[in-house]
Amino acid sequence: MLIPRKVKHRKCHKGRARNKRIATDKIDLAYGQYGIKALTGAWVSARQIEAARRVLTRYTRRGGKIWIRIFADKPITKKGNEVPMGAGKGAVDHYIAVVKPGTVMFEMDGIPRDSAKEALQLARYKLSCRAKFIAKNEI
After folding, report:
1. Which residues contact 89 (CB under 8 A, 6 or more apart)?
2. Mean of the pLDDT values across residues 38-54?
3. In total, how many domains does the chain have?
4. Which of 75, 96, 103, 135 is the most buried (most CB within 10 A)?
5. How far is residue 110's CA from residue 132's CA, in Å, rounded to a whole number?
């Protein structure tokens, strides 16, 4: 799974006004011909990103190239079961990527359009946000 090699702060706040604002960066295809763009905001976990990556690599075999534009760098903490209230914040449990609406999450190139669309459709099922297939010539 993807985790940061080094972090400045071990734990972080949830953040204010989650999923309210639209993305201002990573909104266009930068590397590949095809991609998936988020329609809703979500917290996408490192496990979900890895599951989508596996689907894409298995579907394309050796044919195409894949770019992952999001990275799980926000730590999410969780307290243990049956722990009394108080006593501080829990330990880091997993990492997530904050995805805003309009963010391009995955890109592909080097394979035909119909197979790219099918692969990205299968990868969309693994993510916790609604997304759509986009192509470079359609933008």
Report:
1. 11, 77, 79
2. 94
3. 1
4. 103
5. 20
